[in-house]
Every structure is written in structure tokens, then in C-alpha cells.
Amino acid sequence: MNATQTLIALWTLVVKEIKRFTRIWPQTLLPPSITMAMYFIIFGNLIGSRIGAMDGFNYMDFIVPGLIMMAVITNSYSNVASSFFSNKFQRSIEEMMVSPMPNWVILSGFVLGGMARGLGVGLIVTVVSLFFTRLSMEHPLLTVLVVVLTSALFSVGGFINALLANKFDDISIVPTFILTPLTYLGGVFYSISMLPDFWQGVSMLNPILYMVNVFRYGFLGVSDIPVGWALMAILGFIVVLFTVALQMLARGKGIRS
């Protein structure tokens, strides 16, 4: 395939993925906005008024960046995991594998589709948050950069999950038992400075902590960890997972019997 054909193939795959989740928007875009509205009401208004300030900010303002990031992570991951596994289950992925389309185009197409859903949901949640608080953005470019990188990282993670899954139940194991606990323990609802030294050290092993803190720094200008190190960690995770996913796809892992 020449460069033009490759770009057409990539664009076609991305458009297909976007149409897939927008066609069923009551299942893919609406529920996250309702769920996050409940978080804003319960944790922000009801519980937040009792907690008071966090790192010098109103509690609602403190948790909004984390809740937006949580929505982006969850939807980027689940979109690619469910979409690719459906293609694998229906054996339509085999048609892509035998086509002249390079493996990196297949991977990138699904990842970009997952990023589109994650970022779309993140935008919706941001708009919903405006009904509860006034958002300010100290570092706009950094904020956009980290949310794009995070959606890319978890889209690749969802792709790997789909490759390894043997049945539909398998694609819910990682989000339920790994992703959700890491998200809740990733500083969405609290600052790790509140924790004892030992648990602060344990928290530093949680990759989601870095993403939430850099995103919060973009909004509020405060972070529990050095922003530069956090960005390097996120980029490192993306490179490693993308390389692993590409090698698995090349070997036909989970596709060829």
C-alpha cells in the first residue's frame, strides 16, 4: 500500500469506529454523563460541603479534574476492548489481517476510535461540571496534552485486553478488578499528602495517579507529584504498550487458532 492508500484505510477504520459508538449514543455517551452528575451531586455538593477545602481549593473544584479523567480512562478503554473483541468474535478482524493494511494501521484505527469516545465523553462531563462549579484552567496546553495521552494509553490497553480475551466476560475482568480500584485510589477524591508516608509510597506505584495529578495541575496549578516525571511516565507507558500490542497483533495472538 502506498501512503495515500494507507491514510485512506486508517481514516476509514477511524470513521467506522466513531460511527459505531455514536450510533448507540444512549448506551455510550449518555450514561457516563449521568453517572458523573451523580458524583458531582453526592461527593461535590453533599459530602464536599462537610469536607471543606482540599489543597487550598473548594472540594468540588478539587475533584472535577479527577472525575473528568476517570470518565476519559473508562470510556477509552472499554470502547476499544468491546469493539475489537466484537470484530474478533465475528471473525471480521481476519479480513483486515489478510488485507494489505499494515498492522500499525489496524491498531492505530481502533486506538484513535477509542480516543474519540474517551475525549468526547470527557468533553460532555466537563460541560456537565459547569452546572456545579466554575472551571478555570491554569495551563490549557498541558491539560489538553495529558488528556489526549491518557486516552491513547488506555485505548491501547483496551486493545491488548481484547486480544487476550477468549469470551465477552473476559473484557470486563480488567476494568472491574484492576482499572476501577486503581482509578479510585489514584487521587481522584483526595490528595495523597493526606496519607501516611508508607501509603504515599504505595500510591506512587499507581500509574493513574500521575495522569490525574498532571490533569489537575493543568486546571488548578497544584500536583502531588512532579509534572515532568509524570509526563515522562505516561509517554513511557504508551510506547511500551503500543509496542507490545503491535507485536501481539503481528503474531496473531488471540486471533489465529
Automatic annotation (TrEMBL):
Keywords, in A-Z order: Cell membrane, Membrane, Transmembrane, Transmembrane helix, Transport
Localisation per UniProt entry: Cell inner membrane; Membrane
Residues of the ABC transmembrane type-2 domain: 23-252
Topology in the lipid bilayer: Multi-pass membrane protein
One Pfam family in the UniProt entry: ABC2_membrane
Keyword Ligase: no
Chain ranges passing through the membrane: 29-47, 59-78, 104-132, 144-165, 171-192, 204-223, 229-250
Family: Belongs to the ABC-2 integral membrane protein family.
UniProt-recorded name of the protein: Transport permease protein
Organism annotation: Halomonas llamarensis
